[in-house]
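Q: I'm building a small set of examples for a reading group on sequence design. Run inverse folding on the following structure and report the sequence directly after it, with nothing in between.
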């Protein structure tokens, strides 16, 4: 044993990381599970509708471009977990910490508004989507029991309440590091319902042939005019962007990894695996769903298969969606939960309400965490009851998320950390990528906002029915 090094010091080194926190144990497999859980969410359900608005060639091209840009910026972001050096630098525990370390306080505040606003928005969207899937299960069973002509309309609000109760319980998980089991289960569920959707699409194509499709753009007809087609095209871009809106939780995921090998190396592998796997499933769901339904593809392609035979398979797919979104909600909400918890502890360090934990039946309960996270879930659920518009809401979230959080901040942080010279070829190329994505996001936001306004005009709050 080296002189002056006690057994307790060695044990301490083995138990704690270089920042004094409990040693992280995450691997590229667990990080990939977190990423897949985050990426393959409700966004996959609208991709066949996106293809119907864009046509075969633009649909495939846009999906691939969003995937490539997301992978590129995600890899850049892996280098920003530690600053100023990606191997020996100081850890940035959250996406916002990374922005603050590399870009300063002003950009840090702007990032906070963008990131947490979007995270709140996505949890609202997940609440709506889960309720629709739960209602679909009840409708399917109703038709199977009472016949195809039965009135099986279902109110969505009770299912939103059920989802909220479960989320109130799950929200008491103290931090992101405790979510690995939930993420792994949720990732399996996402693969399952995507695979079922692919199988149902293939079955429909085998029975009825390929639906009426187009190479470039959706044709006029069925109440679709030139203006509607243009707005729907923009909204479809927002939906695809939403499907790839996950970069803003990558730093939090990277903070779960073991420090050897270096976190950025492990995270690059996890990011590549996660995005490539997600893109394959996205492409299959979009292409096969469009081939099955043609230009009349529904907003949620799993509900488009009807509620009849094989009713049990449609039920299984919707059960998988529900389980997946139960976990994905937490993966996306935990960064916001952690931010509020940290701010509260710093603001009131002497408050026992905030700092004191109690054991209840083997569970660690914090009264402040219990109160405020419960309040958050309730407020999100109420908003979802007022605005239960799946496609337009998803498109608007994607448009607001993709450019600032998936493109702009990762590129600017990497430029700062790598000290890339202004107006060099690399700098100009990155700025052009950022500008192009900004234009696409603005178009998508315009289309989705127009669709959302139109939907609100014809809807009564708290009256959502499937």
């Amino acid at each position: 044993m080296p002189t002056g090094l006690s057994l307790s010091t060695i044990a301490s080194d083995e138990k704690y990381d270089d920042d004094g926190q409990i040693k992280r144990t995450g691997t590229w497999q667990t990080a990939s599970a977190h990423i897949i859980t985050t990426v393959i969410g409700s966004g996959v359900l609208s991709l066949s509708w996106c293809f119907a608005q864009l046509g075969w060639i633009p649909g495939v091209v846009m999906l691939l471009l969003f995937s490539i840009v997301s992978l590129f910026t995600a890899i850049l972001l892996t280098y920003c977990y530690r600053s100023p050096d990606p191997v020996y630098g100081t850890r940035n525990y959250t996406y916002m910490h990374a922005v603050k370390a590399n870009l300063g306080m002003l950009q840090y505040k702007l990032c906070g508004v963008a990131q947490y606003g979007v995270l709140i928005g996505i949890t609202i969207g997940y609440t709506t989507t889960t309720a629709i899937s739960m209602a679909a299960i009840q409708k399917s069973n109703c038709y199977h029991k009472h016949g195809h002509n039965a009135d099986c309309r279902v109110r969505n609000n009770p299912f939103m309440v059920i989802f909220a109760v479960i989320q109130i319980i799950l929200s008491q998980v103290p931090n992101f590091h405790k979510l690995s089991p939930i993420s792994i289960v949720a990732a399996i569920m996402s693969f399952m319902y995507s695979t079922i959707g692919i199988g149902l699409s293939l079955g429909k194509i085998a029975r009825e042939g390929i639906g009426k499709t187009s190479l470039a753009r959706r044709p006029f007809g069925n109440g679709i005019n030139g203006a509607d087609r243009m707005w729907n095209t923009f909204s479809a871009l927002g939906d695809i962007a939403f499907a790839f809106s996950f970069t803003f939780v990558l730093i939090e995921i990277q903070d779960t990894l073991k420090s050897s090998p270096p976190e950025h190396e492990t995270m690059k592998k996890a990011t590549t695996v996660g995005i490539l796997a997600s893109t394959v499933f996205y492409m299959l769901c979009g292409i096969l769903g469009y081939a099955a339904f043609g230009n009349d593809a529904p907003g949620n392609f799993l509900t488009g298969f009807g509620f009849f035979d094989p009713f049990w398979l449609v039920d299984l797919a919707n059960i998988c969606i529900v389980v997946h979104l139960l976990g994905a909600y937490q993966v996306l909400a935990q960064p916001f939960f952690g931010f509020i918890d940290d701010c509260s502890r710093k603001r009131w360090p002497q408050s026992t309400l905030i700092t004191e934990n109690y054991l209840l039946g083997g569970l660690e309960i914090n009264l402040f965490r219990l109160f405020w996270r419960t309040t958050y879930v309730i407020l999100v659920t109420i908003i979802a009851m007022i605005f239960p518009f799946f496609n337009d809401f998803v498109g608007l979230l994607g448009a607001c998320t993709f450019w600032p959080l998936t493109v702009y901040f990762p590129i600017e942080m990497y430029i700062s950390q790598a000290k890339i010279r202004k107006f060099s070829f690399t700098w100009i190329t990155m700025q052009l990528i950022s500008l192009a994505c900004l234009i696409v996001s603005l178009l998508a936001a315009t289309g989705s906002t127009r669709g959302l306004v139109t939907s609100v005009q014809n809807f009564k709050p708290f009256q959502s029915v499937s």
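The domain at 23-457 is CATH 1.20.1740.10 (Amino acid/polyamine transporter I).
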